[in-house]
Specification:
globular, 259 residues, alpha/beta, single chain
C-alpha cells in the first residue's frame, strides 16, 4: 500500500525563493506515512511568456534543486515538482518536471506538448519518461500532455501502474482537466494522480489567469477516489495494488491489445 499526497498550492510567479519555501513547508507538514508528494506545473518558478522567465530558469543540478533533494531526504518522501529548466548543453529553456526520490536521485521529464505561448519562449522535450515510484512504474506528464491519446497508449504498452500529472489548468476549463484525468486512468487501467495549481497569476504586463486547482486521485476504473476544489490544502490517498490488479483482471485491455 502506498500513500500519495498533493499539497495543492498557488504559485508566486517569478519568485523562486518564495516557491521553494512553500514547497518545503508543505512537504514538512505532511503525515509521516506519505510516500510521495506531487506539486503542480511550474511550482518553483511560475511562468510568463517573455524574457523575464530567463532570469528564473533553473539548472537541474543547481542549488535550488539541491534544496529540493534535501527536502525529500529530510522528510523521507519522494517529491514531484515542476519548474522552468535551463538546458546545460544548449542553453534552451524547457518546461521541466523533476521526480526526486528520498535518497536524492532525480529524474527529469521535459514537457513534450507545449501549450499556446509556451512555444514562444520554451523548447519541447523529446522523450517520454517513466520512473519507479512507491506506486510502481509511473509515467510523467505535464498539463496539456493529457490531451494526447498516443502518449497515453505508449504508456499502456509499457504497462505503467500510474501516471503522475502536474498541471496549471485554467479555471474556466476545469471540467476538461477532470475528464482527461479520468480518461487517462481508464484507457490504460492505471492510477492517475493530478496535481493542479490553484490561485491566480497576477504579474504586471502579463495576462491574468485563474487556475483550476481540482487536484485528484483517479482509480484504474476511472472513478475519482479523492479530490479537491480550489482550496490550498492537502489531498492524501492510499493506492492499493490489489485494486489495480482487480481492475486489470476485470478490464483486460492491456492483454487484449496484444492479440
Amino acid at each position: 500500500m502506498s500513500t500519495v499526497a498533493v499539497p495543492q498550492l498557488s504559485v508566486s510567479d517569478l519568485d523562486v525563493d518564495a516557491n521553494l519555501d512553500a514547497v518545503a513547508a508543505r512537504a514538512a507538514a505532511l503525515p509521516e506515512h506519505v510516500d510521495v508528494a506531487l506539486f503542480p506545473e511550474y511550482a518553483l518558478t511560475g511562468f510568463v511568456a517573455d524574457e523575464r522567465i530567463e532570469a528564473v530558469a533553473l539548472d537541474r543540478d543547481g542549488p535550488e534543486l539541491d534544496r529540493l533533494r534535501s527536502v525529500a531526504t529530510d522528510n523521507d518522501l519522494a517529491i514531484l515538482v515542476g519548474y522552468v529548466e535551463r538546458g546545460v548543453s544548449d542553453g534552451r529553456l524547457y518546461n521541466a518536471l523533476s521526480y526526486v526520490s528520498p535518497d536524492g536521485d532525480a529524474t527529469v521529464y521535459r514537457k513534450r506538448h507545449l501549450w499556446a505561448n509556451e512555444a514562444d519562449v520554451l523548447t519541447s522535450g523529446g522523450e517520454r519518461v517513466t520512473v519507479e515510484t512507491p506506486v510502481g512504474s509511473t509515467g510523467l506528464l505535464t498539463c496539456y500532455d493529457l490531451n494526447f491519446v498516443a502518449d497515453s497508449a505508449a504508456f499502456a504498452v509499457d504497462r505503467v501502474d500510474a501516471l503522475f500529472v502536474a498541471g496549471a489548468w485554467p479555471a474556466a476549463h476545469s471540467e476538461n482537466w477532470r475528464l482527461l484525468l479520468r480518461a487517462r486512468a481508464l484507457d490504460g487501467v492505471r492510477w492517475v494522480v493530478g496535481a493542479g495549481r490553484t490561485g491566480a497569476r497576477e504579474v504586471s504586463d502579463a495576462p491574468s489567469t485563474e487556475y483550476a486547482g481540482r487536484s485528484a486521485v483517479v482509480r484504474p476504473d476511472g472513478h475519482v477516489t479523492a479530490a479537491l476544489n480550489r482550496d490550498e490544502r492537502d489531498l492524501i490517498a492510499e493506492l492499493d495494488p490489489a485494486v489495480l490488479a482487480d481492475q486489470r483482471e476485470f478490464i483486460p485491455v492491456l492483454e487484449d491489445s496484444s492479440e
